[in-house]
Amino acid sequence: MHTRLIPVLLLACTALVPATASAQQTINFSLGLFTPRGADARVAGDVLNANTTFLFFEVKDFKSASIGGEWLVPFGEFFEGGVGIGFSRKTVPTVYTAFEDNFGEEIQQELRLRQVPISFTVRALPLGQSNAFQPYIGAGLVVTNWRYAEFGDFVDFGTTGFPVFPASYVATGTATGPVVLGGIRFGGETLTAGGEIRYHKAEGNLSSDFAGNKIDLGGWIYNFTIGVRFGR
């Protein structure tokens, strides 16, 4: 259902551009922090929650730097549409909590999550586009390309003696979900600067190679933004 909305949103953005060609558009650049949803709020079957039962790490270890860019097009004085893309990746080293190898050494793994969210949003600016102080709220759809990997040494719990073997497991996919945001922007003629908070929700499916059958991709992004304005 969410996937069918993407062409509609793209068509809407395309239709708005000619009507607002005389208004200032903005290319936004963002630098921030992605914080995943907490262990108690994650989707049922989440692989990170499952892994914490036998590996030494916490879900919050997947906090990561986030970068992004967005094209904002105003329509009217109090609204604007946006299409943006972001990137975050985090590798978390870990070990088994209750097992060692035959030499008494820790059994080590690394877990890696990469996300590339593409967002389609509409914002409302209560004070208008022409005000230098511009608080805003918005909502829309996010389409997230993701990759989750586990690599290192693994314990074969299905074999007598629990042998240890090296391996890597990788899952990729695209997930859609809602995104909401709010922020404050200080606008000039050619540059803008501000801060923003985003929350998005999405989940991916995993195979039986993993301890969980889902990967929760949701979380908060805290951004510092700088924008370049053009057109009139």
Question: Could you characterize the architecture of this molecule?
Answer:
There is one protein chain. The chain is mainly beta. The protein has a single domain, classed as Porin (Beta Barrel), CATH 2.40.160. It is 10% helix and 60% strand. The protein has 2 helices and 10 strands. It has helices spanning 2-19, 47-51; strands spanning 25-36, 64-74, 79-100, 106-124, 133-155, 164-187, 191-200, 203-205, 214-216, 219-230. The chain has an 8-stranded antiparallel beta barrel. Strand 5 and strand 6 (164-187) form a beta hairpin. It is elongated and about 70 Å long. Mean pLDDT is 91; it is low at 5-22.
Low-confidence stretches: 5-22
Give the number of domains: 1
> Which band does the percent of strand residues land in?
over 45%
Rounded to an integer in angstroms, the radius of gyration calculated over CA atoms is 21 Å
- Order of secondary-structure elements: HEHEEEEEEEEE
* Main sheet overview: 8 strands, antiparallel, barrel
Number of strands: 10
Please tell me the CATH architecture by its name: Beta Barrel
Broad structural category? mainly beta
- CATH-defined topology: Porin
Q: Under the CATH scheme, which class?
A: Mainly Beta
| Helix count from the secondary structure assignment | 2
- Distance between the terminal alpha carbons, to the nearest Å? 37 Å
Average pLDDT reading: 91
Helix content: under 10%
Shape: elongated
Major sheet: arrangement of strands = 1-2-3-4-5-6-7-10
